[in-house]
């Protein structure tokens, strides 16, 4: 990149003659991508049916989880599937009434459990993760909010006393190239004194981060987009027709390019652009508690399969998901079940806490059966795609923005894009 172009990216604003882009979706991926395009002097309009950070970008765990280098399609899940169907409060559940609808997705999911597919998908996950922290750091600095990224790492804590299990988990991450330290229980409590004495060991992932407010990141991106001459509109896009978006109120917005970042609602819009994608929805839950945990970093539980993140205004408990589509109502018990787990790990913090203190939330994570997002150009002229980030939307947002900005301006993307192409499902 030339020096002039680099300076332009730092300070560019759209002119009246600039190419126009419509970004569908005002979650963190859409907003980060919109800022990246506005920095390249596109005139950007973001459109969303509910507004900034109204979905999963509001309620996620706030964890930049670059340690998560393993595809979710793990053969170890197979014997657990019957229990997932039967346990309404397990960390991962399939609603029985939705099982037949989810079956095609799960058939593809099982195919991705093969060693060859897991290795291929893992390489593609790592490629995105490797750029994540630096890209996020740069983007938030540009927005004037560097404090929204806290780089104290994260902990994965164990209550089991089975040393073989702990050592195996440590080797699993270490051998995958993740920056990780194995701590004793006492060493973990030295980092986080509020942890229970029941913690026997921990993995400290030293090169990850968290945010005290996922919503604040989205607000900062939205403010930056407006400063660069972009706009944000409310509207429900029902169909894409080339670089045009048809809205349910009859309006038709036309631009030079369209970028689809509609998360869990992307599948029918991708279909209107000619792509049948195997996207399904993981319904993620959190319980936001007003108590301040005293934690300096996110703490996940190996045994309990949930995560605690210190945030502005309290402590977020998250981690339970279910397959149940976009229409079924929230299951409050799936958020409520997080409090007993938090009480067990942080007894001094949550001993007197009640469910009445907390706020329940559910959001929709867009998941692909190979754990990879769809990133790239559509077969429909002028249409570009960036959705399906599963549990790593916050983690990958800045990297996605960087890559889509490069792709949509004709630059050579920083990484090989073929693993994320929508054509992989043809």
TrEMBL record:
Matching InterPro entries: FAD-dep_OxRdtase (IPR006076), FAD/NAD-bd_sf (IPR036188)
Protein name: D-amino acid dehydrogenase small subunit
Pfam families: DAO
GO MF entries: oxidoreductase activity
Record gene name: dadA
Transmembrane helix found in the keyword field: yes
PANTHER family: GLYCINE OXIDASE, SARCOSINE DEHYDROGENASE-RELATED
EC number: 1.4.99.6
FAD dependent oxidoreductase domain boundaries: 21-407
Keyword ATP-binding in annotation: no
Transmembrane residue ranges: 18-38
Keyword annotations: Membrane, Oxidoreductase, Transmembrane, Transmembrane helix
């Amino acid at each position: 990149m030339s020096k002039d172009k680099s300076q332009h990216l730092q300070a560019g604003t759209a002119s009246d003659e600039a190419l126009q882009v419509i970004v569908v979706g005002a979650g963190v991926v859409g907003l980060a991508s919109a800022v990246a395009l506005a920095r390249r002097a596109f005139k950007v309009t973001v459109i969303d049916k509910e507004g900034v950070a109204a979905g999963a970008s509001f309620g996620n765990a706030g964890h930049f989880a670059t340690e998560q280098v393993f595809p979710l399609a793990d053969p170890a899940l197979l014997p657990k599937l019957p229990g997932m169907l039967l346990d309404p409060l397990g960390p991962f559940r399939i609603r029985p009434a939705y099982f037949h609808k989810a079956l095609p997705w799960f058939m593809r999911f099982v195919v991705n459990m093969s060693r060859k597919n897991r290795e291929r998908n893992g390489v593609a996950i790592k490629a995105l993760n490797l750029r994540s922290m630096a890209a996020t750091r740069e983007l938030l600095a540009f927005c004037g909010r560097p404090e929204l990224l806290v780089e104290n790492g994260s902990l994965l804590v164990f209550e089991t006393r089975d040393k073989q299990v702990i050592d195996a988990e440590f080797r699993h991450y270490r051998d995958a190239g993740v920056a990780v330290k194995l701590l004793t229980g006492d060493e973990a409590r030295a980092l986080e004194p509020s942890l229970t004495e029941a913690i026997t060991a921990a993995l400290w992932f030293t090169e990850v981060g968290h945010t005290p407010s996922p919503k604040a990141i989205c607000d900062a991106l939205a403010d930056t987009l407006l400063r660069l001459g972009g706009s944000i509109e409310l509207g429900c896009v029902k169909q894409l027709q080339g670089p045009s978006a048809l809205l349910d109120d009859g309006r038709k917005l036309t631009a030079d390019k369209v970028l689809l970042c509609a998360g869990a609602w992307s599948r029918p819009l991708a279909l209107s652009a000619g792509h049948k994608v195997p996207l399904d929805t993981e319904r993620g839950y959190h319980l936001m508690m007003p108590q301040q945990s005293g934690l300096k970093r996110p703490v996940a539980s190996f045994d309990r399969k949930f995560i605690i993140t210190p945030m502005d205004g309290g402590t977020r408990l998250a981690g339970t998901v279910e397959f149940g589509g976009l229409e079924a109502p929230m299951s409050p018990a799936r958020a409520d079940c997080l409090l007993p787990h938090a009480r067990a790990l942080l007894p001094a913090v949550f001993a007197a806490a009640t469910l009445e203190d907390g706020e329940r939330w559910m959001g929709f994570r867009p998941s692909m059966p190979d754990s990879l997002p769809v990133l790239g150009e559509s077969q429909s002229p002028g249409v570009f795609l960036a959705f399906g980030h599963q549990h790593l939307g916050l983690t990958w947002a800045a990297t996605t923005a960087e890559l889509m900005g490069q792709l949509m301006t004709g630059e050579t993307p920083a990484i090989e894009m073929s693993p994320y192409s929508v054509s992989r499902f043809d």
